[in-house]
C-alpha cells in the first residue's frame, strides 16, 4: 500500500498571521513621547532580545505590550494569538496570556514561595502545575515554605518567572532578569528559559547585558530614542561590531 506522508511545514506559511505582533505603537508619559511607532512580530516559541541604551524605551515598550496603565498607548496594535489587546486593560491582556515579570520582581512580603505561587493563580487560567515548576527550579522546591522576600536575588527572580508560568502564559515579558545576579545564577536562569522555550512559550527579554540576552535569543530588536533601529536575528547583532558599538555601547 502506498502510504503518503504529509510533511509538516517547518515555518508558518508566508501569509499566516504571526503569533504575536505589535504594530505602530505610540506611547506617552504625559507629553513625553517615549515609544515611537514601534513594530515587530514573533513566531510561537521564539525568544526576542529587546535592546538599546539606557532610556531607549525598552521597559516602556514592554509595559505598553502588557497594557500597563503607563505609559499611555495612544495608537498602535497589540495582537496575541489572533486576539487584539491594544484596546484592553492589563488584566485582560494577562488573562489572554501576557505576563510581565517586572524588574523589581514583585514578590509579596509575608508569603512563602508556595503562597506567592498560589496567589498568582487566584484569578486567571492555570498554567504549569507546581510540580512542573519545582522541576524547572529545584531551588524553589527546597524553599517552598520559606518567605519569598528572604530568598537571594536569583531565587526571587526564579520565583517571579515561576509565578508567570503558574498562569497560562503565552507571551512572557522579562524586564532585566539578570540584574544584580552572579554569573552562575544567570546560567541557571538561562537554562530554565531554554526549557521554557522548548515548551513553546514565546518570550521577550529586556536586558542590559546585551550579549547574554542575545546568546539566548533567536531574534533581536534594537530601540534608539523610542524607535526601532534594527530588527533581525540575534546572530546578526552578535556578529556586527557596528550595531554593538552604535546602539549598545559595547
Ligand atoms: N514613569 C515615567 N514618567 C515619565 N517618564 C518616564 C517614566 N518612566 C520612564 N520615563 C522616560 O521614558 C524614556 C524611556 O524609558 P524606559 O525606562 O522605557 O527606557 P529603557 O530603555 O528601559 O531604559 P533603562 O535601560 O535605563 O531601563 C526615558 O526617557 C525615561 O526617562
From TrEMBL:
Domain named ABC transporter: which ranges? 20-250
Family annotation (Pfam families)? ABC_tran
Q: What GO molecular function terms would the record report?
A: ATP binding; ATP hydrolysis activity; branched-chain amino acid transmembrane transporter activity
Q: Which residues form the signal peptide?
A: none
Specify the domain of life of the species encoding this protein: Bacteria
Q: Which UniProt keywords apply?
A: Amino-acid transport, ATP-binding, Nucleotide-binding, Transport
Give GO terms for biological process: L-amino acid transport
Instruction: Write out the similarity annotation.
Output: Belongs to the ABC transporter superfamily.
Protein's name in the database: ABC transporter ATP-binding protein
Upper classification of the source organism reads: Bacteria, Pseudomonadati, Pseudomonadota, Alphaproteobacteria, Hyphomicrobiales
